Amino acid sequence: MKIKPERVKEILDKFKSRKVLVIGDLMLDEFIWGKVGRISPEAPVPVVEVVKEESYPGGAANVARNLRILGSHVDIIGQVGKDAYANKLHELLQAEKIGVSGIITNPQSRTIVKTRVVARHQQVVRVDREHKERVPVNITDKAVAEIKLKLKDVDAVIVEDYGKGFVTQALADRLCMLVTAQKKILTIDPNPQNPLHWTEPTAVKPNRTEAFVAAGIAYAEPIEPVEKDETLGRVGKVLMEKWRPQQLLITLGEQGMGLFQKGKTMYHTPTRAREVFDVTGAGDTVIATYTLALAAGATPIEAAEIANHAAGVVVGKIGTAVVSTQEIIESFKSYHG
User: Fold this and answer.
1) Which sequence positions are flagged as catalytic?
2) Torsion of Cα atoms, 248 then 134 then 279 then 73, to 10°
């Protein structure tokens, strides 16, 4: 579908008047950038000479960051430990004017940190600091209290589930009840390792692998054209019946995205990426942009196209990257003139 540039701009211009609540697993993303000049004499591994170090909000916090860069007002609800990493994450979010009053400190937990060592534009190694655990009932209760407090003022809610424990069935049930009562947009980025029941959300956005796992169907390699991929179509049908969303958006990597809606054939939008350097956080960009476009009055197909262009821009960057509305407009111009 070709969307006129003026329509794209009309939708993107509304982003700055929209407010979104993000709920999910919060993380801190650390990047150590360096140069490799030799192999270690101690083991057959490269020696990385550190050039610079950077930190960014990660996980659900990266979704919030994407929304904020796009111009939206954002509040976030999630859990951190009582540690220096939590302090750093608070500082980063506050610096980007993201509401942090919904962040809950759990002294019995610790903040999730992912440290990536990058040299010559390639990730050399990733070090994860995390401890998966059952979230105490009192933490879920605090999260629900924050949702009740903030829900009336937002246009949409995004749940970003990285399967680290914060998003539970109890939280999902209470959230769906509250969102339905206030008729808000609810979009879910699910984790198949944390299978939850959602009550008729607006949209669910798995990637291809996640979609096959969630549908209980053995993974099948992509085929061309996407519209002829019968196994993917079967996965979409199963998930539409399982989750009963208004929309199901499956990201397909180099094949772009497939949008499923009840009673309609799958809509396919091919990738808009010109170069792929790093897919870190690309899914976060998609769910953020798609949700914000819906909140701005876009149709599901328009929202999918805008999210697809946003993803095409962000995978051409290194690190936990974000995309601006101007970059999305430029991407549309380069493809459609």
Assistant:
1) 284
2) 70
Q: Are 203 and 249 in contact (CB under 8 A)?
A: yes
Number of H helices and number of E strands within the chain? Answer: 10, 13
- Which tokens is 170 given? 């109890």
Number of domains the chain contains:
1
CATH code of the domain containing 103: 3.40.1190.20
pTM score, two decimals?
A: 0.92
Structure tokens at 123: 């990730």
Answer whether residue 36 is part of any domain: no
- Give the distance between the most distant pair of CA atoms in the chain: 64
pLDDT digit string, tens, across residues 183-206: 999 999 999 889 999 988 999 999
Res 278 pLDDT > 50: no
Determine if residue 281 is left, alpha or beta; phi over 0 gives left, psi from -120 to 50 gives alpha, anything else beta: left
* Domain ranges, residue 106: 5-26+58-113+125-336
Report whether the peptide linkage leading into residue 270 is cis, meaning its omega lies within 30 degrees of zero: no
Contacts of 141 (CB under 8 A, 6+ apart): none
What is d(CA 79, CA 110) in angstroms, rounded to the nearest whole number? 9
